[in-house]
Amino acid sequence: MISRYLKHRLWLIALLFLVFSTAPAGANIQVQCPGDIDGDLVPDQMIPPGFPGEGTPNPVFDPNVKCMHITGGDGFAKMADGYDQYMFSFGLVGPTTPPTVVPPTQVVSDFTLRALNPAPTIVLDQDQELYLTLSNVGMVMRPDLFDPHSVHYHGFPNAAPIFDGLPEPSPTPNMGSSLTYYYKAAVPGTYFYHCHVEASEHMQMGMIGNAWIRPRQNGIPYVIQDGTGRAFTQFAYNDGDGSTGYDKDYPLQLTAFDSNFHDAHINVQPLPFAAMYDNYHMINGRGYPDTVNPDPILNNAVAFGAGENFAAQPMPSLIEAVQGQKILLRVSNVSTTHQYAITTTTGVPMKVVGRDAAQLKGPDGKDTSMDVSVLEVAGGQAFDVMLDTLTVPPGTYFLYATDFAALSNGPQDRGGIMTEIVISAAAP
To answer: What residue ranges in 260-314 does DSSP mark as E strands?
Structure first.
């Protein structure tokens, strides 16, 4: 079955590598990261060893600068029923833990077919300045395509249209080139990002990632006025009273694939836009039970002639807490075809404290947060949802979609948008 994907395009793949190998190596891959001297995408407070002035303060170091380098390209993902899906997405060059240095001349050769599902997560503190470099490494399995890519930070109040990612006012890097986006993290809340070039196609193919901004209030202890004496130092918003305080946060990005669309793509067939209908529903790039698997999931790239299998799905969605803790869920829906309604097992309360990166609070300061049993999440929406486990007995509970169609992995039942909430007993 898979061999038919390969025979008619092996010469195209060879041609693509020939083009990249004969072009000036890394000529158009340029990374901007103010204060980074050694190339690991972490600004250096002190000049590192081996550079002039080593051991002395770096005169251009700014603690508010954060850098990130991602790629736009193709790859593969493995669905929870074992079905292999071709996809587009973003990959991560850095920063990594431990820090690594990838020379610009090696980005294209080292990061083809390294697309992640979901895309690398972007986390900022309010007032930080992000220099986000996007390098387009091309679609190796579709060398007949020459699509540019972009990063659109959805819902972000961007004052500079040039960095908004829309193809009309913004540059979009072509294959073998890069663009560095600049963002000032001004407004805290939960966002997401996606490619805005041929958006319905590229988003359906998987070019979607989590993103959020932590508030300036973080680090200041607040005792909440609920009679429990609980104190928090992490918050969803600058609430002024600790009402959005939490102990742990988890992103829950709801996405889905239309397997017919993805199969047509790698088969180089006309794409069924009008018939697009997602049948593999996922949280953070996985369907249940893979959502609770703590290990990265390897794709089946070797079977497609891609060289090696790759941990393309690194993010589980298992929610864990100790009884009494508050959990912040950063929920977003970026399916191109579906609206989702999610709920929890009876006894696990949900309170919505923010929507689309805005705290639910009236102009006079009135609390407009909502206790809900079912959360409706339309396409393009993001919510901040609190789970307070104070009265939840220890045990395993479920968070899941109410639509049976979203509880499937393609033809397989009991999958899709479902994950587990594990509450353990507090220490005596």
So the answer is: 280-283, 297-298, 311-313
